[in-house]
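Ops channel
N.P.: pipeline sanity check, posting one input/output pair.
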């Protein structure tokens, strides 16, 4: 797959994973893609926990099933846990702005980079914003003063069907001036 638009169109939230383990090396490559993401002042305000041991995967999946949501994670083979870390901005920038001002945007790029790398490797991902943060913190030993930004469930998709994207048309959000 060489065309970026094709990759962007293929990436979709996978909610049906095959019963097939994901190779450790592929998870390492996803983490590497995330590492290369851009960030404000190159502050890199992130850390990543890769959950791949089957017992932990089960525990993390249970954390995502608040209110009966995210049943599909019963079949997830791994999870990425993206954590917001303190950002150190360049002194001139820091004198004007809160140090965390870019962090959530930076983490969005970080998460998308790993999802796109996963897609190039034939893996399916689903970004997850709804989960039991206190429980997950306990299971993974994430300190109380760190915000767990997003989870991503990972596995081989059970089907290779690509759904149509439901998106605003360009004229509703883009202006060329
Ligand atoms: C911040 C964020 C949180 C999300 N949380 C969930 C979630 O908890 N469960 C879920 O099934 N999908 C979740 N999604 C996936 C979105 O529903 C999905 O990206 C959107 O509907 C577009 O579909 P697509 O990813 O298939 O292109 C989340 C996506 C983002 C970016």
């Amino acid at each position: 797959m060489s065309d970026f638009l094709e990759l962007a169109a293929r990436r979709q939230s996978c909610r049906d994973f095959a019963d097939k383990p994901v190779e450790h090396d592929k998870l390492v490559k996803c983490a590497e893609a995330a590492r290369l993401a851009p960030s404000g002042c190159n502050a890199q305000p992130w850390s990543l926990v890769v959950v791949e041991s089957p017992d932990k995967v089960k525990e993390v999946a249970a954390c995502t099933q608040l209110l009966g949501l995210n049943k599909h994670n019963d079949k997830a083979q791994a999870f990425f846990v993206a954590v917001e870390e303190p950002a150190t901005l360049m002194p001139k920038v820091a004198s004007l702005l809160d140090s965390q001002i870019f962090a959530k945007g930076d983490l969005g790029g970080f998460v998308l980079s790993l999802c796109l790398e996963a897609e190039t490797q034939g893996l399916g991902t689903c970004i997850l914003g709804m989960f039991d943060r206190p429980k997950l913190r306990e299971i993974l030993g994430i300190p109380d003063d760190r915000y767990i930004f997003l989870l991503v469930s990972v596995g081989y998709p059970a089907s290779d069907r690509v759904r149509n994207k439901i998106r605003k048309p360009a004229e509703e959000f883009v202006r060329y001036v």
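N.P.: looks fine end to end. Residues 12-13, 15, 70, 126-130, 150, 165 surround flavin mononucleotide (CB under 6 Å).
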